[in-house]
Amino acid sequence: MLSVLICEDDCRQREMLEKAVCNYIMIEDLDMKLVMSTDNPLEILEYLHENSQTTGVYILDVDLKHEMNGIVLASKIREIDDLGKIIFVTTHGELSYLTFMYKVEALDYIMKDRPEEIYRRVQECIQLSHQRYLNDKGSKKMFYQVKTGDRVQAIPYDKIMFFESSSIPHKLVMHLENGELEFYGSVKEVASIGDDFYRCHKSFVVNVKNIRSVNKASKEIELVNGEIILVSARAMKGLLVKI
Q1: What is the 3-state secondary structure (H, E, C) of 128-176?
Q2: Largest Cα span, the chain
Q3: pLDDT in tens, 24-64
Q4: First CA to last CA across the chain, in angstroms?
Q5: Is the pTM of this model over 0.85?
């Protein structure tokens, strides 16, 4: 389900946005829900910290009459929900360039000067967000969600080379095409996330789609990014079947 969160300091504007969202969700019978409407950006962040698996649509004013403006709020939202859709509704068109500086990837930047346009465009954004959500759910592209600190990142399976046990207890290292992420998890857990992942060694779970070659003599696997990992004699037979 897609969650909708509104942050708008003007009470009348906030009520109008709530009405636009709720009416459209009800009429179109969408798999969405308005879960928060507030004038306090800290409440949005608190909700996301407590519900870190949220995939949301965020409707934000830019000037929130708070020490944190809407664009800074959006950048903090993006750290937690990097698949979320962000919509700005504001009187400050001159600040739209900041969305690029903060790299928030806004879906729309709607001006408040025409109330009837706000209602229509917010509903268009809701429809587009829902359609993209369905497309993501129905696509073959899968994502692995990694929590590092307060941030949750969605990593496409096809970008993962392998998982490795970390030297730190209860942690794993995810090896990507060009980089690494360390997070709390277990080898057993990641070995079961999908058919493309195979536990080839007590310390490694490899993405079989990203194997370039297997050397049976040296018991080594070369990944498409050039990294080399080990495969145990016991796991070799099962690996060769998978590739």
Answers
A1: HHHHHHHHHHHCCCCEEEEEECCEEEEEEHHHEEEEEECCCCCEEEEEE
A2: 72
A3: 999 999 989 999 999 999 999 999 989 877 889 999 998 89
A4: 35
A5: no
Which helix (H) or strand (E) segment holds residue 52: the answer is none
How many CA atoms within 13 Å lie on the side-chain side of 186?
3
Supply 165's token pair: 């046990």
Q: Go through the domains of the chain in sequence order and give each one's CATH number.
A: 2-138 (3.40.50.2300), 143-242 (2.40.50.1020)
Query: What are 67's two structure tokens?
Result: 């020490």
pLDDT over 80 (residue 98):
no
For residue 94, name the pLDDT band (cuts at 50, 70, 90): low
Would you state the structure tokens that stand for residue 101, as one six-digit string?
């500086």
Residue 167 makes CB contacts below 8 A (sequence gap 6+) with none
Pairing state of beta strands 179-184 and 211-215?
unpaired
